């Protein structure tokens, strides 16, 4: 069993902890909190051992009647790998703590690429990550882009990808985030960091990204245009993407017009926390005109990096192949959303070069 600790039990950390606990070859040794709040209670109710992330605050847990199993150094001594899910920037500060305990570590996309030996995405560079002591799972948007561009690059070659990202303003629990009444370029400069970040896990693909933030909390939306080297049919691209286990092609007949219904569908399907681990691509948006491919996809920022973290743990600690790890992760979590509502050929109205 791979013994895993999660340092930082927030939006990403609580999901990674649940995903680790669900794996047949992993044991969740414990999670950390800096304070004994509602999330600490939830962790304990799930049966997870709780550790104080900051040793000086251990007494606060006792005062609040929340039992802890120890402090972060105790956790690091008991695990084979730690997954750092602390807020952006704190991960980089934690790096020396992990090194002092000789504990391999996985960081998140809020950290710079230099925080770890390599950046990671299971679809693009699992094998290349072997031998590293530390990995960084790229951010939610970057993960979504890597999953989408990798099969296109392999099948047709990518001459140039251009993506506009409409980023959610904050997560549902982040009451202080915004904007609340505007759509703002963020960053205002082009390209945004996402394109270069894609190249940390998928080198050689020419991709420019421009990003905005919108007053929504549910998901990010990507408007994608890729100029391919070989011109496929629209149908071929739809089939290619539908074959990817971490891409869900939304059939037109489902009547899902945005993130609200996507999240509702996830909850109807019994997904924990309404999580969508897969990129969600609108099937009827996939259109090829000459060598230009267009599509819209949504990415659930709280969820898509979660299976990637599980695979990163195996890349660091096992000899399993990428395919074996991805299959194991998918099976344990139930990744691979499919709809029974298949669109018929007549329902499609592709743009063609003759239009
Ligand atoms: N949310 C998102 O959409 C995504 C986030 N990421 C990345 O994942 C990382 C985590 O983000 P996210 O989960 O959203 O952040 P959150 O703020 O939701 O969670 C981080 C948690 O870490 C705890 N924490 C604070 N200080 C420390 C510390 N010194 N040591 C350990 N834990 C600490 C806080 O809980 P408490 O103080 O109560 O213990 C906090 O809830 C970031 O790098 C982010 O960029 C990546 C993809 C998507
Ligand atoms: O990693 C994320 O976004 P990103 O891919 O746009 O960098 C997460 O959605 C966190 O973004 P935030 O920095 O807006 O909280």
UniProtKB/TrEMBL annotation:
NAD(+) binds at residues 11-12, 110, 168, 301. GO terms for cellular component: cytoplasm. Pfam families: DapB_N, Gp_dh_C. Residues 168-196 are annotated as: Disordered. Keywords: Cytoplasm, Glycolysis, NAD, NADP, Oxidoreductase. InterPro entries: DapB_N (IPR000846), GlycerAld/Erythrose_P_DH (IPR020831), GlycerAld_3-P_DH_AS (IPR020830), GlycerAld_3-P_DH_cat (IPR020829), GlycerAld_3-P_DH_NAD(P)-bd (IPR020828), Glyceraldehyde-3-P_DH_2_arc (IPR006436), NAD(P)-bd_dom_sf (IPR036291). It comes from the Archaea. D-glyceraldehyde 3-phosphate binds at residues 139-141, 194-195. GO terms for molecular function: glyceraldehyde-3-phosphate dehydrogenase (NAD+) (phosphorylating) activity; NAD binding; NADP binding. It is an enzyme of class 1 (oxidoreductase). The keyword DNA-binding does not apply. Its EC number is 1.2.1.59. Residues 2-140 form the Glyceraldehyde 3-phosphate dehydrogenase NAD(P) binding domain. GO terms for biological process: glycolytic process. SMART domains: Gp_dh_N. It is found in: Cytoplasm. Pathway: Carbohydrate degradation; glycolysis; pyruvate from D-glyceraldehyde 3-phosphate: step 1/5. The active site is at 140 (nucleophile). It catalyses: D-glyceraldehyde 3-phosphate + phosphate + NAD(+) = (2R)-3-phospho-glyceroyl phosphate + NADH + H(+); D-glyceraldehyde 3-phosphate + phosphate + NADP(+) = (2R)-3-phospho-glyceroyl phosphate + NADPH + H(+). The keyword NADP applies. Belongs to the glyceraldehyde-3-phosphate dehydrogenase family. Homotetramer. This is Glyceraldehyde-3-phosphate dehydrogenase. It comes from Halorubrum rubrum.
């Amino acid at each position: 069993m791979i013994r895993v600790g999660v340092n930082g039990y927030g939006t990403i950390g609580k999901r990674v902890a649940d995903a680790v606990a669900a794996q047949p070859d992993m044991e969740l040794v414990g999670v950390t909190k800096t304070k004994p709040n509602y999330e600490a209670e939830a962790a304990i109710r799930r049966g997870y051992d709780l550790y104080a992330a900051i040793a000086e605050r251990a007494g606060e847990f006792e005062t609040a009647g929340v039992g802890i199993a120890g402090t972060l150094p105790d956790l690091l001594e008991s695990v084979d790998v730690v997954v750092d899910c602390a807020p952006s920037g704190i991960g980089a500060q934690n790096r020396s703590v992990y090194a002092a305990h000789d504990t391999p570590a996985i960081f998140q996309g809020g950290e710079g690429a230099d925080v770890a030996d390599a950046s990671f995405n299971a679809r693009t560079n699992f094998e290349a990550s072997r031998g590293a002591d530390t990995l960084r799972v790229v951010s939610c948007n970057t993960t979504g882009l890597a999953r989408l561009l990798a099969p296109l690059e392999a099948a047709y070659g990518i001459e140039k990808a251009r993506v506009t990202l409409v980023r959610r303003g904050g997560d549902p629990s982040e009451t202080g985030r915004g904007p609340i009444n505007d759509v703002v370029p963020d960053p205002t400069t082009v390209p945004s960091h996402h394109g270069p970040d894609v190249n940390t896990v998928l080198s050689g693909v020419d991709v420019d990204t421009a990003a905005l933030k919108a007053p929504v909390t549910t998901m990010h939306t990507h408007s994608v245009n890729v100029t391919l080297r070989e011109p496929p049919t629209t149908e071929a691209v739809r089939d290619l993407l539908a074959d990817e286990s971490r891409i869900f092609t939304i059939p037109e007949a489902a009547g899902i017009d945005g993130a609200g219904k996507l999240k509702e569908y996830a909850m109807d399907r019994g997904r924990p926390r309404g999580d969508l681990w897969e990129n969600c691509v609108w099937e009827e948006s996939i259109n090829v005109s000459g060598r230009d491919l267009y599509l819209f996809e949504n990415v659930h920022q709280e969820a898509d990096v979660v299976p990637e973290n599980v695979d990163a743990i195996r890349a660091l600690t096992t000899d399993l192949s990428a395919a074996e790890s991805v299959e194991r992760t998918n099976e344990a979590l139930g990744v691979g959303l499919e709809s029974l509502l298949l669109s018929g050929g007549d329902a499609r109205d592709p743009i063609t070069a003759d239009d």
